[in-house]
Amino acid sequence: MSPPAGADNKRLNDGVAVNVHTIHRQQNCSEDVVVNPQLQLAAEWHTNDVLNNRALNGDTGSDGSSVQDRANAAGYRGTVAESVAINPALAISGIEILRQWYSNPAYLSIMRDCAYTQVGVWSANSLDRTVVVAVYGRPQ
């Protein structure tokens, strides 16, 4: 397994959150999408799990956890959904992330859902794999 690259992905993570906000605006959603630290923590956990467990390629964690399980464990109270992007390279661009998510009808539907007004995004890299996870929240 390749070691983590140790890059600072804050700009990439923030850019994904901004893109989700833009998609909401295109859908005429009335509320802003805001970053939620609990959702970001849930996204971080799953990102690291997918990065380090090559058999994973979606929403279920190596321990069988769902996105709702991880959000609950992070202290989030509300309904959640998730999108995952994996690129078999050291890096991924915002355009590549959106291409993957737009081509997945379930992920596109989640991104367009105006009820998801909160988001947490995390990404991590190794020399041969980049993973990006966005967790979307509908607060109670």
TrEMBL record:
Q: Name one Pfam family in it.
A: CAP
Instruction: Read off the InterPro entries from this record.
Output: CAP_dom, CAP_sf
Q: Which domain of life is it from?
A: Bacteria
Database matches in CDD domains: CAP_bacterial (cd05379)
What residues does the SCP domain cover? 19-135
The protein's name is: CAP domain-containing protein
Species: Mycobacterium hippophais
